[in-house]
Design a protein that fits this description.
This protein is of the alpha/beta class. The protein is built from eleven helices and 15 strands. The strands form three sheets. Strands 1, 4, 9, 10, 11, 12, 13, 14 and 15 form a nine-stranded mixed β-sheet that branches. Strands 3-2-7-8 form a four-stranded mixed β-sheet. A two-stranded parallel sheet has the order 5-6.
Length: 341
């Protein structure tokens, strides 16, 4: 069992039932989730000691998030309690040609206002095998960006492998601000995960591919992967490749480069999509598990990650509630959806 640290913000997602629009609903489901928390749940499902690090209010609403993580086996021992509020976001699930929509209400959350006195990252990183964070965390606030740097420094002191999901969020910061913050943090990163938009808006790279128009030719990414590897010294660079035919139907695959070889996973057509929120996070969780399980075999790792994420699109909520056996079954080609009796 590997000890894996995930650092970020868990929020409460408020969603109408089914495909209802915000303006027609009179009630919301409460669904806990957030980038790195979603990764932690995936890794706990695969049998790891997944430790989630954040700050949450000590009141009952903060406890909702803590309980959700505990329910799925995540280690919450490093969560600091305090602050006034937990971040919220509203998510409307799209259908067919109507896209899904997210509205944030997260300003002034506990983790956004947390300081270095709230976390002992040297203690947290002791004995850890892996540290994962995403570009969402430093986008929350300048304080959160500084905490991210502090955590990365501690991880390096303890010889911990560091991964990042670039995860650009235009509703949280501008590309200019993202580049100024994210590029200096890349020196701590071993495994860089991000799609074509993330690479451009977080790091300033532009791939030769037009994914918006359904073009996901992996060859368009080879040049940019080489540039990223040369500039930042990553051990590997990984991208998910999404073909968005509609809100209900996507093509999905992934590409990985280790400095020597490019490898593209098998492609999945996901139709219908039940809930795509957390799809990228489920990929990150699957990749981390795959790299630890298969001893760095990037082909096995990225196939596991792509299959895990394809399955996530069939699960309601942010968390990927699938087992390792279910993922491996899909990797082997069992995708007919027959009832298991």
């Amino acid at each position: 069992m590997s000890k894996i640290i995930c650092f970020g913000e868990i929020m409460l997602r408020l969603s109408p039932s089914g495909n209802d629009r915000f303006i027609q609903t009179d009630s919301f489901r409460i669904i806990p989730g957030g980038g790195e928390a979603n990764v932690a749940v995936s890794l706990a499902n695969y049998g790891h000691n997944a430790c989630y690090v954040t700050k949450l209010p000590s009141h009952e609403i903060g406890q909702i998030a803590v309980n959700a993580l505990r329910r799925y086996g995540v280690n919450t021992g490093y969560i600091t309690r305090g602050g006034d509020r937990i971040g919220l976001y509203y998510a409307e699930t799209g259908a067919s040609m109507r896209p899904s929509k997210v509205i944030y209400d997260r300003a002034g959350s506990a983790i956004a206002e947390a300081g270095p006195e709230d976390f002992d990252f040297d203690r947290i990183m002791e004995g850890a095998d892996w540290f994962h964070w995403s570009g969402i965390t430093p986008a929350i606030s300048d304080k959160a960006a500084e905490l991210t740097r502090t955590a990365c420094e501690a991880a390096k002191r303890h010889g911990v492998t560091v991964s990042v999901d670039l995860n650009f969020r235009k509703k949280l910061w501008t590309s200019e601000k993202a580049i100024s913050v994210m590029r200096p943090l890349m020196k701590y990163v071993d495994v860089c995960i991000g799609n074509e938009e993330d690479a451009q808006l977080c790091l300033g790279f532009k791939p030769d591919a037009d994914v918006e128009n359904g073009s996901t030719d992996a060859a368009g990414y080879e040049g940019i992967f080489r540039q990223m590897m040369a500039e930042f010294g990553f051990k590997c660079v990984v991208s998910t490749l999404r073909e968005s035919f509609s809100a209900s139907c996507n093509g999905w695959k992934a590409l990985i480069y280790d400095g020597k070889e490019f490898y593209q996973s098998k492609r999945y057509e996901i139709n219908p999509i039940i809930d795509r929120v957390g799809g990228g996070d489920s990929f990150s969780g699957g990749l981390i598990h795959g790299m630890l399980k298969y001893g760095g075999d990037m082909k096995e790792a990225v196939e596991f990650a792509a299959a895990a994420s394809a399955l996530k699109h069939t699960v309601n909520g942010d968390f990927n509630l699938v087992s390792e056996d279910e993922v491996l079954s899909l990797v082997k080609g069992n995708a007919n959806g027959r009832v298991q009796r």
